[in-house]
Design brief:
Elements: E1 2-6, E2 19-23, E3 34-44, H1 46-53, E4 66-67, E5 72-79, E6 91-94, E7 98-99, H2 104-107, E8 117-118, E9 131-135, E10 139-141, H3 148-151, H4 157-169, E11 177-181, H5 187-197, E12 201-206, H6 209-218, E13 222-225, H7 230-237, E14 243-248, H8 255-262, E15 263-271, H9 282-288, E16 291-294, H10 300-311, E17 319-323, H11 327-335, E18 342-346
Parallel strand pairs: 11-12, 11-14, 12-13, 14-15, 15-16, 17-18
Antiparallel strand pairs: 1-2, 1-4, 3-5, 3-9, 3-18, 5-6, 6-10, 7-8
Helix pairs in contact: 4-5, 5-6, 7-8
């Protein structure tokens, strides 16, 4: 099969070619619950750039060369002998983690904290290819309304945004405020999830006019351009107190300190984006009683819930499509901020 393969790290992302489009062996059924999926779409994620930078070397057992791509959807190509409920040709979306389901975390539904797991595109070969090996427990059948290429990025970007926004929505009341920092590939999904799940007023913050325009279309009540006075603008909008919830899809640079400053006392700051460092004096934590909440990719049931919202037309993805052989261009466009929404590779 053809695949876009990562052969070496590029810590400064200076090269014009990150991956090599080449022939590699097809994945094979090895276990009774294995499934081979013919890729219909593979999302291009900022995590892929972090992998290229080498940031994941100490957090996953990445052995080069290997194939990135952890946001995958397509059609079942082959199934293991113990697989039931699925057949060849079924359109599916893949939860990003492959687990056995036997450990306590899995039995509680928290597969992302499984004692043993494979994460295609992160620690094993992923979906920047024509075929992907995954497991039955990771598969969700797609309704006829949703095409694999249109929903692939939901498996990480959408699911992570959904998990964070679902947490926030449980305590947001009508008349309260929620701030979304960064309205790119994750943030524009987050705005839609918040709009669908709560009645709080949504403030979108971004430095890109195009991103803010997209945020407005996705349901944001107010937009703030990040030109240096965004904290003051948000505080003025919220009566000087800050928002009850701030969801930070950037997680680096000044966004962290600004996000905390936008969070009112007894409010919650949800950190989704990463790459920066969180520092806050303990006395400020005590006197403000702010809550800082980390967010990993969501659960299998949460991906089912997100697909229900997509099927109902309440959440949609803004995507830019690339051929698999153009994976380098997609990665470069993402790196240089030219993709508004999510990039998708199509074999």
């Amino acid at each position: 099969m053809k695949a876009a393969v990562l052969h070496e790290f590029d810590e400064k992302l200076e090269k014009s070619q990150f991956v090599v489009y080449e022939d590699v062996p097809d994945p094979r059924i090895e276990g009774p619950n294995d499934v081979i999926v013919r890729i219909g779409g593979a999302g291009v994620c900022r995590t892929d750039l972090h992998i290229i930078e080498g940031l994941w070397r100490n957090n996953s057992d990445v052995q080069l060369p290997y194939i990135m791509g952890h946001e995958n959807a397509g059609w079942i190509e082959e199934i293991g002998p113990a697989v039931t409920g699925f057949k060849v040709g079924d359109p599916v979306i893949c939860h990003p983690l492959v687990t056995s389901g036997h450990c306590l975390a899995c039995r509680r539904g928290n597969d992302m904290h499984a004692e043993e797991s494979a994460f295609p595109g992160v620690n094993v070969n992923g979906g920047y290819a024509e075929l992907l090996k995954t497991g039955q427990r990771s598969l969700i059948k797609l309704p006829k309304t949703l095409a694999p290429k249109d929903v692939a990025p939901y498996t990480d970007a959408g699911l992570t945004a959904y998990r964070a926004c679902k947490k926030a929505a449980t305590h947001l009341l009508p008349g309260q405020y929620v701030v979304v920092i960064g309205v790119g590939g994750l943030g524009h999904i987050g705005v839609q999830v918040l709009r669908a799940m709560c009645a709080a007023r949504i403030i979108a913050v971004d430095r890109s006019d195009d991103a803010l325009e997209l945020a407005g279309k996705c349901g944001a009540d107010f937009t703030v351009r990040a030109t240096g006075d965004q904290v003051e603008q948000v505080l003025a909008m919220t009566g000087g107190h800050g928002a009850e919830a701030v969801i930070d899809f950037v997680g680096e640079g000044s966004a962290i300190s600004e996000g905390l400053a936008m969070t009112r006392n007894d409010g919650a700051y949800y950190i989704v984006g990463y790459g920066g460092k969180l520092e806050i004096p303990t006395i400020d934590m005590i006197t403000s009683e702010k809550r800082i909440i980390g967010n990993l990719v969501g659960t299998y049931p949460e991906l089912v819930e997100l697909m229900a919202l997509a099927d109902q037309g309440k959440v949609h993805l803004s995507t830019a499509e690339y051929r698999l052989q153009d994976a380098n261009q997609a990665l470069l466009d993402l790196h240089h901020g030219k993709i508004h929404g999510r990039g998708v590779l199509i074999p």
